[in-house]
Structure prediction request, 503 residues.
Amino acid sequence: MSLLNTPFWEVLKASFAPEVWAEILPAAFDTLYMTLVASAITLVFGFALGVAITVTRRDGLLPAATFNAAAGWLINCFRSLPQMIMIILMIPVARLVFGRSYGMNSCIIALAASCVPMYARIVESSLLEISKGKIEAAKSMGSGNLRIIFRVLLPETLPSLIRGFTVAVVAIISMSALAGNFGAGGIGDIAVRFGFQRFRHEVLFACVYVLVVIVQAVQFAGDTASKLILKKRRLI
Amino acid sequence: MSGQIPAPKGYLEIENLKKSFTVRGERLEVLRGVSLSVEEGDIFGVIGLSGAGKSTLARCVNRLETPDSGSVVVGGVDMLRLSARELNRERQRIGMIFQQFNLFESKTVYQNIAYPLRVRGLRKDEIDRGVREAAEVVGLSDKLPAYPAGLSGGEKQRVGIARALANRPDVLLSDEATSSLDPRTTLSILELLKDVNRAFGVTILLITHEMDAVKYACRNMAVLENGVISERGVTRDVFSNPNSSTGKMFMRVYAEMREEYTEGGGI
Prediction:
């Protein structure tokens, strides 16, 4: 059903038809799976990398100029690649790891390669928000650096870290849709193959609904979590 | 020098301390040979204008800043010759309170006061006792479950003091601790500092730009001017007969403010 020969209203009605959703739902779960796994990888590695590049800054807790410069340079390299190019670049890597260049797991490699460095930068900017005074207060009590990182730096910036992670997850969702075009499956794949190439615009509409709902849910969860923490601490 | 009798060594001994910063390629000498001696159990005031180097001086004592040269000896321990591990242990004997309080907003009052005790590796019941005692001293026993953001400025600084005193330090560094508080709260905080000084014999180095604070709380004082001590002595004497330009200026401004205040009050 194409908008070219069908009224908008008809296409809209058709987009809620059970046949359409029979096609869409499995793809929606594929998208959720890719987002979930890629988000978990991004959280673990992006977070660790973000903490590492923050504390090794020249004015940081554990200054390490060479490591910091090298890591920063590498992150910038990865971040300068547009997502589409990253997906193509990671095809041989996926073939090396999984033995094939398509499928959801292969696509997750590309998602992680793009989003880990991005989240690392977001973590860095969150951690730099902490006032120097709190770190100094902890130092003045004889606190070791690890304790300062885990008991002061991270708890103090937690609401901001959560908001940053929400941004990263939304970026992962949008990139997973793009990866659909390169054999990853999921909502993006359906949208392109049916919605674009076959002019089935009711499917395209349904894909849009799914993506909007997922993104809204993620954003709502992130906002709520961060707000609850701020409220508990009487900061709002 | 050989003919002179050496002055009695103080508990906190600072000698010929120098510290400079490089700001945008320009060398800024903040401390240019500061010597101070603070006796055990004293409340010693260091007064000076903004940029005189007061905060840098306090921060050199617990090595938040590392001085370029000179020496800092606290209770016989040379602070500049410590390894990182030793420094952290010594810092547990030197409490510090700040103008901006620097409380942990992610932690309750209880957890804030508990932090230094956890650093020391105490058992849970010891921590609990320490927190309750320290809170009792500053009069905040009923605020333990509260978060700092919900407290007034005076209460925040009380938490800061409890946190700094939780480990029963020998020295308390007060870096403009009352400078962001209103006059009445300032008075109550100074009163508290005098109380803990009396009760625990903690030696206090009180850094401030407020004359009243020094006058109210300190037995001995020094005037820091452009990175050097321009005047020192018993507070009463320095106030009645200031010699340095900063000392004189403080007195003049003080006199003017009083005059204005009395005149204004008459209308």
Q: What stands out?
A: Residues 56 and 64 of chain A are 5 Å apart (CA to CA). Chain A has a mean pLDDT of 94. Residues 8-232 of chain A form a domain with the MetI-like fold fold (CATH 1.10.3720.10). DSSP finds nine helices and no strands in chain A.
